[in-house]
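Subgroup meeting minutes
Present: P.N., E.W., G.H.
Scribe: E.W.

1. P.N. recapped why we're keeping a running log of single-chain structure predictions: easier to compare across weeks, and new members can see raw inputs and outputs side by side.
2. G.H. added today's entry (676 aa).
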Amino acid sequence: MLPTNRTDNEETSSVTDLLDRPIPNRARPRALIVAVAAAFAPVLAPATAQAAGRKKGKGAKADTCITVGSDETLTLTETTTATCLTIEEGGTIAVPDGYSLSLTVNGVETGSELAALTDGEGGATTAIAAGTYTGIIVLTVAEANDLTYSTLTFPFRQAIYVDADGVDESKSVPSDVVGGTVTDTAASDITLLSNGEAFNGLYVTGGGSYTLTNPKIAFDGNGRCDFIGYGASVVGTGSGTTLVLDGANISNVGVVRTAVIADATANVIVKNSTIHCADGVVPDEYPASGTGDTRYMITVPWMLGISGNVRATNLLGAGTKASYINSEISSEKWGALSVDGGSYCTLTAINSTIANTGGEGYGSYAIGNVTEHFLGCTFDVGDYALIHWGASAHYGDSTKSAVSALNTSLSLGLTSAELDDLPVQSTTIDAGRFMVMWYAAGSVAIDGGTQVNTGETTFMCKAVAGTVTVDGSDGAAINSGNGVIFQLMDTDRPSSVTVSGYPWSSETIGTYTEPTGSPTRSSSWTTTSSQSTDAKGTFTNIALTGDFYNSVWGGGNASLQGQNLSLSFTGSTVEGVISASTAKHSVSTITQTEYRQISEVTNTPSAVVNNGVLVTLGAGSTWTVTGTSYLSALTLASTASVAAPSGKTVTLTVNGTATTITAGKSYTGALTLTVS
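Output recorded in log:
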C-alpha cells in the first residue's frame, strides 16, 4: 500500500528522489541529474490541426476533495481533477468497460497496484491503492489499450500514445507529462515519472514515426511482462514504426520494469542516452524457483547461472531492429541488451557501454536467428558478454566504413555530421566469468582491435555447434582468467518441470546430476574427421596462451552420439594444452541453491572416446604443448610446427606407436602428445 497523508512538499520530494537516486557501482553510468519542472500540469498539446480534431479525454471536473468509503465503488466516466483524494480500505474507483484509469499527483503516476499473479488473469490488472493523496490530483479516464500476449491480456496505460496519425490523447495520460513540448511527430525535454506499477511512458505503434529528445524518465515499481513491454518506459511496435530516442535519461527500479522494448518489426534507435534498470521486489505468489513460462516469467531462469528480475531492454517479434549508439545501457543483474521471443531480429550497439552493476548478468542475449553487431563498445558485465541460443554475433571496431554500412542497411538515420562525430573505437570486453556461452548452434566473429578479458573460460559451449572466428590482424587479443580459452562440454542446465494447479505451466525445479562411470564408445560416431555438428574455432594472426578442452561424453548420453572440437590456427601461436578431457563440477548435483556452479568445471586430459579433437596448424603457426594432450587428428602445414616449452621435448604417439612430428603431414587415430 502507498503511504498516506501525503503533502505537496512530500510528493515533490518523491519526484526528486526518483530522478536523483544513485546507481550502484560496478560500471556506473552517468548519474541522472535533472531538474524537475516547477509546475506540474498536463502539456500534451498536439500542434497540428489534424491532431487537434482527434478524440480527446472528456472534460475535467474541479472537485476539491474526493472520498471513497470502505466497500464503496465510485465510477468515473470522465477525467476528474481534485486537490485531495481518500480511498478507504475496501473502497474502489472504477471506469466503464473499454476504458482505463490512471492517477497522477503533482505530475507523477502513482497508486496503481497490480493484482496477484494467481488471479486467473495473470495479475495484469491494476487498481488505485487505498490511501490519502493530496496535491494536484488528476484521475484520467482513457480509452483502453488492451494487448494480448499468448493467452493473457495486458491493459496498457501510457503517458503518450502515438500511432500513424500522431499523438492520440484519448489513449494518453497527459497529466504525467511534465515540461517540454509534445507534437504529433516529436517530443522534447519532457519528464515522465511513475511510482505506481505497470504504467508505460511512450507507446508508439501502427506505423507511426516518433522522435523523443532529451526525456527524463524514472519509474519505480513493478512491471509485469517484458515479452510485450507491460510497464516499460518506451515501446516501439508494429510494421513501419520508427522510434528514435536521443539524449534520454531512463532510470527504472522494479521487477521487469524494462526501459526500452522494440517489437513486431519496428525500428527503434537509441542514441546519446543513459539507461539503467535495477531489481525490484518479486511478488510473494511467484514460485520461489521461478518459471520458464514466458507469460509469467519475471525473473531470469537460474539455470543460466545468474539471478535478477529486470533486464534493461528487450527485442521481440519478427524482423525487429534495435540500435544503441553512443549510449550507456546497464542492468543491475539479469541482462542489459536482450533479444528474447523474437526471430530474425537485428540488435546493434555502436560506441556504447554495456554493463551489469550488481556483479551478475549478461551483456546481450541472442535467440531466434538474431544478428548482433557490437562496434567500438565497452562491456563490463558480471558473467557473460553473450548468451548464445542461435545467432550471428560480431565484435569489432567502429570504423567509418562499418558504421556507414550499418547506417544504410539498418536505416539508422544518422546524418553526415553525426557519422563524422563518432570516433573510431575498438571493442573491449571485461566479463566476470565467460565471454560467450552457447546453448544452440551459431557463430561469433571477433576482429579489429577487440580485447577480450574474462575472469574464467573465454568460450563456453554446451554440446552444440558453436563456432568462433578470431582475426588478430589488427590487434584483437584474448586473455582468459583461468587459462581455458575454449571449453566444449555436456550441458549442465537443469530442465524445467511441468506443473499443474498453477497459472504457469512449468517451474524451474529441475536438478543436474553429474554422470558417473565412464562414457561408452559409440560405434556410429567418427572422431577423426570434421562433422557438421562440430564446435569450431578458427584463429588467424594471433598469439594465444591457454587451453582447449572437449569433455563431451556422447555414446548416447542425452541422445548425443558424440561431438568433435575442430580447431584451426593460421599465422598464429598457441601455448597450452589442447585435448579431450573429463570435466567435473565441484558438486555432484546442481539445484537452484547451487546456481553459480553452472558451467564451473575442472578438466583432466583424457583419451578420446566420442569427443574428438581435430587440430589444424596452418601456414606460419606454432603450437607449444605445455602438457599431455589427446587428439584424434593433427594436420600441419609445411611451415607449421609443434614445439615444447624451453628445455623440454614433445613426443607424439599414434595408436600407441611413437611417431615423428613432421611439417606438412597429417595424423589421425588415438594421438597422444607428451611433454618431458
